[in-house]
Design brief:
Rossmann fold; 5 strands
Length: 212
């Protein structure tokens, strides 16, 4: 438990210095749109903007010849409720693909998984014409076993019940808590971390024909 408390304090401190009021949005043209919704891990905390995962995703898709623009729609410390409150801001962009990650700040605050499910379903409904990628990472196995199980079930149930939903598990596999892939706080990613994540994501999108 003492390690959990220490981790939480470190995370709260790091993210409190990273809260942004603005939302970074940029498109290059009238091409199809991928919307990346999340918090500081989607942004470029302590790395150059060119090194975050949406920018690297854009570069990778361009290299492979896919006709997409990636919108980086991030706000640090966002919960699923926060993401829901601003989701409609992006309706005019009519994204073909929405990459939705909403769990980290919910479970750090031990928020209700019932509310998480409700918020996710409302966000998905807002983008009813889009293909939604639910991107998720497991809660550490030694923490709140029932709560961890409930979190995982929320995502699996939603993805199983909706034909346009894809469940992309293990967002931080291969990089979590490995010093070479994290900045000094051991929470936020460095450029190598983003590179691995983008390769995993593009492989997932290609394998499931989501980019076609």
């Amino acid at each position: 438990m003492k390690y959990l408390l220490l981790f939480s304090v470190l995370f709260f401190y790091s993210c409190s210095n990273d809260i942004k009021e603005d939302i970074y949005i940029e498109t290059q043209s009238e091409r199809k749109v991928i919307l990346a919704l999340w918090d500081s891990l989607t942004a470029w905390y302590w790395v150059d903007q060119k090194d975050n995962y949406p920018t690297k995703l854009q570069n990778k898709l361009d290299l492979l010849g896919y006709d997409f623009d990636v919108i980086n729609a991030w706000v640090s410390w966002d919960t699923s409720a926060n993401i829901l409150s601003r989701a409609s801001l992006y309706l005019e962009k009519k994204p073909k693909i929405v990459i939705l990650v909403a769990w980290w700040n919910d479970w750090l605050r031990w928020l209700s998984t019932v509310d998480l499910r409700s918020n996710l379903l409302k966000i998905i409904d807002i983008f009813s014409w889009s293909t939604v990628i639910l991107w998720w990472m497991d809660i550490p196995a030694n923490l709140w076993l029932n709560y961890r199980k409930d979190f995982k079930n929320v995502y699996k149930i939603i993805s199983n019940e909706n034909k346009n939903i894809y469940f992309f598990e293990y967002f931080l596999d291969w990089v979590w808590w490995i010093p070479r892939y994290n900045i000094s706080d051991m929470i936020h990613p460095n450029t190598d971390w983003y590179e691995i994540i983008v390769n995993n994501l593009v492989n997932f999108l290609v394998k499931n024909d989501v980019l076609e």
